[in-house]
From TrEMBL:
The keyword Membrane applies. The chain crosses the membrane at residues 13-32, 44-63, 69-86. It comes from the Bacteria. Keywords: Membrane, Transmembrane, Transmembrane helix. It comes from Comamonas avium. This is Uncharacterized protein.
């Protein structure tokens, strides 16, 4: 496989985790404006992105296919729980 094709596949594999990480971190700042957050938004986004890549890779290994709906469901649940914890949601 040529290197450009490999990079294209790799970016498309990581795109759902990256988009969701930025949306969750930015959305937490919009929803809870007056609340003091535990981490800056870019730290939250990077932690969510790393968790998302881990979930997607684990889903690929366990199911043998990329892009399964079950993997995406676990991705959303895991990253949203992580964002809730990083935003201090347990304090409300």
């Amino acid at each position: 496989m040529p290197i450009l094709d490999f990079l294209n596949h790799l970016l498309n594999f990581a795109a759902p985790a990256g988009c969701l990480a930025v949306l969750l971190a930015g959305g937490a700042r919009l929803v809870w404006r007056k609340k003091s957050h535990l981490l800056p938004w870019y730290h939250m986004a990077s932690i969510n992105f790393l968790l998302g890549i881990l979930v997607l890779a684990l889903g690929l290994v366990l199911t043998g296919q990329d892009g399964r709906m079950g993997t995406y469901a676990v991705l959303v649940l895991g990253m949203s729980t992580c964002q809730w914890l990083m935003s201090g949601g347990w304090r409300h």
